[in-house]
Amino acid sequence: MEDSVLTSQRPKTALLLINTGSPEAPEAGAVREYLAEFLSDSRVIELPKWKWWPILHGIILRVRPAKSAKRYQGVWTEEGSPLIVHTKKTARKLQQRLGDGVRVVWAMRYGKPAVEDCVRRLVEKEGIERILVMPLFAQYAAQTSAACLDEVFETALSMRNVPALRTVREYHLEPDYIEALALHIERFWEKAGRPMDAGGRLLMSFHGIPARSTALGDVYEAQCHETAAALAARLNLRGNEWAVSFQSRFGRDEWLQPYTLPFVEKLAREGLPRIDVVCPGFAADCLETIEEIGDELRSAYLRANPNGVFHYIPALNESDEAVEAYAAIARRELSGWI
Q1: Domain count, the chain
Q2: Can you say which residues are annotated as belonging to the binding site?
Q3: Residue 187 shares a structural domain with residue 307
């Protein structure tokens, strides 16, 4: 009788947070395994296999792992990969915020913990009947949001006991998300001062994707600009006090522009005295924010303008404002389930 009571009290609903992923270690072998999975996804690289696989297996996976491992070593912490550490802490705080009626878990689209393993454990081991899937990408893109949902749906296709599924497609204009970003930036400025007061500017750098994605119907570019405009309005910024750019270009194809690095170098050469960079599309700090923005972009700006001031404003990570925003979104989407 006691066991049945305990079983009935277990939550039947889960919130699954998904982020991109990370190698298990900052070593060439682990990076190679991670890149092989990541760059083999047709959502990420939209080229026919006959064209892409010789490049991937013949060149990239032979050369890039060792170079990338050195980059990961530069951002790795005692707790592990920053992306995984922050995602884990976010899930833990969100569990506390939502209470015992919902089981909050997290997974990585590439690497571990794998989405399939998490979904199967929830259903087959914990008796979960309903799952709200929330990719941690505010702006919807086929390369990120859809890739996460693909893995959930593919897992469901092979299950006998398929849970009820709901998804958070995007939250780029959610008032709670915009407010979380604004509060996060304002708290940074309380300590560092506002760049505009020194004649500077706030740059919102989003992860880039191939430019042709927009022509194919992807809404990502438009949603990035919508997020930026809403955030600028909330911060009471004038048109010349903020800008949008796109980072992390991969390959030779044209990606969304302006590219963050040359854009910032141009501003530095023109004598912009201060620039603060925030990455609204990154839920957690990772290689692309810590190294690419915090280190490489900072160095490029200061080389072109030695007397300038550069600030990288960290991602939302597991901040209270982030957790509050995610909780508000989750509660709405979980309506009727809890």
Answers
A1: 2
A2: 207, 288
A3: yes
Q: Residues within the annotated binding site for Fe(2+)? A: 207, 288
179 close to 320: Cβ distance less than 8 angstroms: no
DSSP 217-245: T--HHHHHHHHHHHHHHHTT--GGGEEEE
What is the DSSP-derived secondary structure letter of residue 250? -
As a whole number of angstroms, the distance between CA 34 and CA 130 comes to 30
- The pLDDT value recorded for residue 104 is 98
- Residue 253 maps to a domain: yes
Q: What is the 3-state secondary structure (H, E, C) of 25-44?
A: CCCHHHHHHHHHHHCCCCCC
CA angle 217, 220, 225 (to 5 degrees): 125
Q: Would you give the end-to-end CA distance of the chain in angstroms?
A: 25
Q: 315-334 burial by CB neighbour count: b if 16+ within 10 A, else e?
A: bbbbbebbbbbbbbbbeebb
Tokens describing residue 16: 């699954």
**pLDDT tens digit string along 243-281?**
999 999 988 899 999 999 999 999 999 999 999 999 999
Q: Residue 49: which CATH number?
A: 3.40.50.1400
